[in-house]
């Protein structure tokens, strides 16, 4: 608690970043913390995201907190954005979190737990209401979403993508379109059961679109799975080569020995050599595959 009080009573710790890298921007009366987006480093009082376009994933990260994150379009606007933050309120909430954490970690110390209500915007976002939720609509029809900020989709600036099925359900090429919308935005609501193979986080609007959008907003935006590492492909190729290399070497040895020995004897010796090399290859393959993974992956 003493360390927390010392940090919260000192100069504010500010992190300035772009969506791709941390920025070294001098801030008047503050300590600059080198942290990149999505700003998960502890010990930050205020975060500043320098970008001209805020996507739905960025907005979801800003809603989570725990410290305030403000957005500005250029580096020249960083100081003005920081001055607009209610720093005493942000530090009061940070101190309340530290006290609550200490009370849970040391229950016998009789430390009173503190609770500060979240801002109205964060409470509305947690409930999934239409306040501040941007929705893009794609598909085969139109829907009426009063109270929501509806944009033409697919748009990465939206928080939720709503896909409208046709009268006969989804068509043949709709699965790829739905997968692309889900990968671009991270939240997808469909008006009919989706085609097989889509992510489990896709929400089906069984009891109305507002309720389905609220359910989708209660989860963080999904991130597409990373591609298969190159090391796995290299390992598969290496294991396929273990069958052909001993055969080729054995044939070469048999041809060479046939010039000095009878053909039957040369073939027998080549067969013995093939068996020995194959047994050694099988014994060494796991280790070599692990080393190849370590080097290339």
Largest sheet report: 5 strands, parallel
Query: How many domain regions?
Result: 3
Q: What string, H for helix and E for strand, traces the elements in order? A: HEEEHEHHHEEEHEEHHH
Derived from helix and strand composition plus strand pairing, the structural class reads alpha/beta
- Number of DSSP strands? 9
Mean pLDDT value: 79
Summarize the amount of helix as a percent range: 40-55%
Keywords: Membrane, Transmembrane, Transmembrane helix
Transmembrane segments: 247-276
Q: What would a concise description of this structure say?
A:
The protein contains nine helices and nine strands. It is α/β, with parallel strands linked by helices and 297 residues long.
Question: Mind explaining what this structure looks like?
Answer:
With 297 residues, the protein is an alpha/beta fold. The protein has a 5-stranded parallel beta sheet with strand order 6-5-7-8-9, with helices on both faces. The chain has a 4-stranded parallel beta sheet with strand order 2-1-3-4. The model is unreliable at 121-130 and 284-297 (pLDDT under 50). β7 (160-164), α6 and β8 form a beta-alpha-beta unit. The protein folds into 3 domains: 2-116, no CATH class; 134-217; 230-296, no CATH class. It is 45% helix and 12% strand. α8 (230-257) packs antiparallel against α9 (263-296).
Topology record:
Blueprint: H1 2-9, E1 13-17, E2 31-32, E3 46-50, H2 56-64, E4 69-72, H3 78-83, H4 87-105, H5 120-127, E5 134-139, E6 149-152, E7 160-164, H6 174-185, E8 188-190, E9 203-204, H7 209-217, H8 230-257, H9 263-296
Parallel strand pairs: 1-2, 1-3, 3-4, 5-6, 5-7, 7-8, 8-9
